[in-house]
Amino acid sequence: MNRSPVEEGGVKIVLGPGTGHGQGFLVKSKFSPCYEVYPAEGGHVEFAPRNELDLRLVQFAYDYIENSSNVENARGKAKLTRISHERLGAGPAIPLIYEFMKKEHPNLPRVLETGDHAKTPDEINSFDVILGGMQKKDALCMKVVEKFAEIFAVQAGDTALKYLPYGGIYLIGGVTMGIRDYMITNSQCM
Prior knowledge:
The protein has helices at residues 52-67, 85-89, 93-104, 126-134, 139-163, 174-185, and strands at residues 12-17, 21-27, 36-40, 169-171. By secondary structure, the chain is of the alpha+beta class. A hairpin with a 3-residue loop joins strand 1 (12-17) and strand 2. Helix 4 crosses helix 5.
């Protein structure tokens, strides 16, 4: 049996949820002194609901993406026939998940929408929600961080199954850095 020209441990994957869900893989052949980088469009795969909450989130996403005037949805506003992973696992999904969690948890305070620095639902962006959850420990924002991190972790695991990245998985970008501490300490993200 012939062995692959890819060095053992040579495949690496890179995942970065930003305005989309960037993905790529790196391969180092035993014949090459350096890694070659290949982009991928894995964020466009179908989102796979894993439970009833995910099913409700998908149904909510159809309406939100079609009708919301949120600052992060302006580019993606469209009539959809499917929900890709990127629609729920990239930065612009965070305000969408925030609105969904408001519906799921109507008794939680809406800290981002009250007080001296209050914003309207259309003004709330990913940074606001991540900051609210990670630094200000707001319960509603933390629900969003938890759900987003779960979606990201599942995508990372699914991508790892496709590429078998014995060289490692690298999580990059601002959203990743914003929720890093949660991902490191939460067993569902490992």
